[in-house]
Amino acid sequence: MPYARRVRWERFFEDLEDQLAAEWEAERAALESEAERLRLARVELRARLVALAHGAEAPVTLELSDGECAEARVTAVGADWLAAAEADGRRLLIVPLRAIACAHAAHGDLLRSARPIEERDRLAERVTLALALRDLARRRVGVAIGTDARILTGTIDRVGADHLDLALHEPGAPRRAAEVRGYRMLPLAAVAWVRIDAAAGVPAV
């Protein structure tokens, strides 16, 4: 009898230990799940795009505020804009983050972009759209600019705090007085995208 009693007690303690271990695992999983929900609640769109720039396996499709839709690979992310190489490889798209209406990404890339990553280029966090466009103006890069109303082509002459001056001319034509057919002053808030020749390279970030 003492032996049987001892076996029963050992089983009792083993069962109790298993039960406590299961409860601890359930509690730990719940805490981790809650911590993950809290972490995701603080994740911003820019951080997801940075992750896509550094690790996406497939191109994304960007739907923009003016109705433009482009399949491209995100190559750089500034403070409030991104650069993406279009699928044809010949053109580069510069997009203010506020102009992104929707981004289609492969499911695996979408999941990976939600994981924590370390910012690889802290300088890029401080390069605004205005600074990127000033780089294009300095280099006299020909551009096409999409707005909700129209597409304008030419060369950016100067960039202010919240607007730019555009000399209008035909795509591919140099910015010469004889080629310029007008000037426009555009609020940066009206710009949905800027398209340049990929050979011009990404603006300095």
Overview of the molecule:
With 205 residues, the protein is α+β, with helices and mostly antiparallel strands. The protein folds into two domains: 1-42; 45-200, Roll (SH3 type barrels). Helices cover 33% and strands 30% of the residues. The protein contains four helices and ten strands. Strands 5-1-2-3-4-10-6-7-8-9 form a ten-stranded antiparallel sheet. α2 (45-55) packs across α3. The longest helix is centred in the N-terminal third of the chain and has 40 residues, at 2-41. It is elongated, with a radius of gyration of 27 Å. The N and C termini lie far apart (81 Å). The model has no long low-confidence stretch (mean pLDDT 86). Keywords: Coiled coil. Residues 21-48 form a coiled coil.
